[in-house]
């Protein structure tokens, strides 16, 4: 059926405390969760069978026991939560009642239902709410896990790791105490040479090794931002970035993306009227849309560094997954206010937990000091494996370049067959398809999908303001049989969802 459109029109070392929580608001009596907020948090919790009210009560119990619903937190009214979860109000009433009988919830006059202060665990308010790591905490969320888009490991990771000998370990352990805050010198040198060979002169002093790209983001947020600083992000954007900037209490502004990537002209207009501290972009391969920034926009974005006092963070974690074989070291330039984030985990295997920051030496030194507050360095064994894997990047990219487009074709053919009204733009890289629902919203639909054994992430979690909830992200790096079964179940769930929506409209019309 062809391609279908889906898009709608530096650093301070002072430590910071988070004073703003994503998706949660603070009122005079404590935290207050909306129905949609709570619906997103409930994905992947509680029982998978039994009466719906019991599944809901066990899910809420789990969130309370984990401290994600803290003491005094206000829960949404029964009717609103029932609508968000696409269940009857009776189901929510029964679940709330069961938890009140257990002493976990209490009803306060004038303030609704709240988590009991007597039984709930104490928690730091900054930890309350939905998190990017939630789907990794308790194992698979459902029979078919479409909530994660992690790439499977390449066989060469095991081959390279198995090649380490006892002499290699003795050399690694016998010459140093084992703490390399900036990273294993040989790995920093190898990554610097990789950038230099691609035409971007880089020295080892420009590289800081991190425990994955997410830690790199956290370091940049803590080291370069203060509470209240303005941050510009793409719309939509990587979920982990929203959380990193949320934890430092920043004011988020958005700039849309289209099939050429970030709308740089819109960014220029925003920078001309406001003075954000930092701009976060993904030029190499965008998560969740798979868009690659065009060459023209890349040049315009680079020029903005000379025109505005802003820190530009270019997250290239998915570099090496583009379908057209473009160079995988796509740093924009070298500039005192440019920070580039890279990763081994996306291309090779998430279990490596190896990433890096490329910046001028002064910034690297400061971020290393920030890192030293909580972490004295990444595993040297993992870094030794990563060092050897750097010699296999071309082979790894070639393998991804074959497998990812094949998986994409499989997924889109399944969607054409079973969900022909769903729309998307063809990605150019990455491992996920950003799909637009023809009606309704993904937060509510995800609850129905979970009952059919498929876990989905609502598009709202990829947005600073929740406005992309008419989208969801579907991975295409899964086995064909898994994708086929998952899309078939999604089609059944979608029919159920539409039927429920029709009933709701009919009932509303009858009442009015």
Automatic annotation (TrEMBL):
Every HTH gntR-type domain range: 50-118
Domain of life: Bacteria
SUPFAM superfamilies: PLP-dependent transferases, Winged helix' DNA-binding domain
Gene3D superfamilies: Aspartate Aminotransferase, domain 1, Type I PLP-dependent aspartate aminotransferase-like (Major domain), Winged helix-like DNA-binding domain superfamily/Winged helix DNA-binding domain
Listed CDD domains: AAT_like, WHTH_GntR
Keywords in alphabetical order: Aminotransferase, DNA-binding, Pyridoxal phosphate, Transcription, Transcription regulation, Transferase
Pfam families recorded: Aminotran_1_2, GntR
Keyword ATP-binding found: no
InterPro entries attached to this UniProt entry: Aminotransferase_I/II_large, HTH_trans_reg/aminotransferase, PyrdxlP-dep_Trfase, PyrdxlP-dep_Trfase_major, PyrdxlP-dep_Trfase_small, Tscrpt_reg_HTH_GntR, WH-like_DNA-bd_sf, WH_DNA-bd_sf
GO MF, any single term: pyridoxal phosphate binding
Family: In the C-terminal section; belongs to the class-I pyridoxal-phosphate-dependent aminotransferase family.
Protein name from the UniProt record: PLP-dependent aminotransferase family protein
Organism expressing this protein natively: Kribbella pittospori
Lineage of the species this protein comes from: Bacteria, Bacillati, Actinomycetota, Actinomycetes, Propionibacteriales
């Amino acid at each position: 059926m062809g391609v279908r459109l889906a898009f709608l029109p530096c650093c301070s070392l002072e430590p910071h405390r988070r004073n703003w929580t994503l998706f949660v608001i603070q009122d005079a009596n404590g935290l207050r969760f909306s129905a949609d907020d709570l619906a997103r948090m409930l994905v992947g919790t509680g029982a998978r069978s039994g009466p719906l009210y019991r599944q809901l009560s066990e899910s809420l119990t789990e969130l309370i026991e984990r401290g994600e619903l803290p003491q005094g937190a206000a829960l949404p009214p029964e009717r609103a939560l029932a609508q968000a979860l696409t269940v009857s109000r009776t189901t929510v009433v029964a679940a709330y009642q069961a938890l009140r009988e257990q002493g976990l919830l209490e009803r306060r006059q004038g303030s609704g239902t709240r988590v009991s202060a007597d039984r709930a665990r104490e928690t730091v308010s900054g930890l309350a709410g939905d998190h990017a790591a939630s789907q990794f905490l308790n194992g698979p969320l459902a029979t078919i896990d479409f909530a994660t888009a992690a790439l499977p490991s390449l066989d060469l990771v095991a081959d390279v790791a198995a090649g380490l000998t006892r002499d290699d370990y003795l050399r690694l352990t016998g010459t140093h105490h084992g703490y390399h805050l900036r990273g294993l010198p040989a790995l920093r040198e190898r990554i610097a040479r990789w950038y230099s060979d691609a035409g971007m002169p880089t020295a080892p002093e420009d590289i800081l090794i991190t425990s994955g790209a997410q830690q790199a983001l956290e370091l940049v947020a803590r080291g370069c931002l203060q509470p209240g600083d303005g941050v510009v992000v793409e719309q939509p954007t990587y979920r982990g970035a929203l959380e990193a900037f949320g934890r430092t209490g920043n004011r988020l502004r958005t700039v849309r993306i289209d099939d050429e990537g970030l709308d740089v002209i819109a960014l220029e207009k925003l920078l001309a009227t406001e003075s954000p501290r930092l701009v976060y972009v993904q030029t190499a391969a965008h998560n969740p849309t798979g868009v690659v920034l065009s060459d023209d926009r890349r040049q315009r974005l680079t020029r903005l560094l000379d025109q505005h006092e802003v820190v530009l963070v270019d997250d290239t974690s998915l570099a090496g997954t583009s379908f057209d074989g473009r160079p995988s070291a796509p740093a924009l330039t070298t500039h005192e206010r440019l920070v580039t984030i890279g990763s081994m985990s996306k291309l090779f295997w998430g279990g490596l937990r190896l990433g890096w920051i490329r910046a001028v030496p002064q910034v690297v030194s400061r971020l290393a000091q920030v890192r030293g507050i909580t972490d004295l360095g990444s595993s040297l064994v993992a870094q030794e494996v990563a060092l050897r894997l750097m010699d296999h990047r071309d082979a790894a990219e070639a393998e991804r370049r074959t497998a990812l487009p094949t998986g994409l074709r499989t997924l889109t053919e399944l969607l054409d067959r079973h969900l022909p009204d769903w729309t998307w733009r063809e990605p150019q890289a990455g491992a996920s398809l950003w799909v637009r629902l023809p009606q309704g919203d993904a937060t509510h639909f995800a609850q129905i999908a979970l009952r059919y054994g498929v876990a989905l992430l609502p598009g709202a979690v990829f947005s600073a303001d929740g406005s992309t909830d008419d989208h969801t992200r579907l991975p295409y790096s899964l086995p064909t049989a898994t994708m086929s079964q998952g899309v078939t179940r999604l089609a059944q769930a979608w029919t159920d969802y539409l039927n429920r929506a029709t009933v709701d409209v009919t009932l509303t019309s009858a009442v009015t």
